[in-house]
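quick one before i forget lol
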Amino acid sequence: MNMEIENIPYCRIAYIRQIGPYGQNNVQIMEQLKKWAQSNNLLNEESIILGIAHDNPKLVEPQNCRYDTCLVISNDYCINNDYISEGSILGGKYAVFKIRHTAEAVQKAWLEIFPELFKHGYHLDETRPILERYRIKLINEHYCAICVPIH
């Protein structure tokens, strides 16, 4: 599995939160966020979309799982929308895994990521979220990245 170490900078995000089982509902809010971003001229080749699954469905009832679909925005952008929230990603050291953007590849990656980290002597930093990162250029090539905070 291809792993690179990256220092992800602090960033400001606009996001929509979905509460419920992971899966198809996440896709729907992703489309909702992209539509909002396009209508506000925020979606281009440099855009970064993030997915943040806050809960482990093995530990939290599926109907209570939280998933944020986020768009990295500039520090001076003013959000004027009732269903778009504002937040930030602290940044820091991450192990980044580039994977095919298919359901099968993503499921397989989740099984391989943690053994790969431990094999290289890294430990999960549970104070920061794991990020699914979608850069427009990579999406066009049918890839995405899973970014795991490490120390």
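fyi Residues 3-149 form a domain with the Multidrug-efflux Transporter 1 Regulator Bmrr; Chain A fold (CATH 3.20.80.10).
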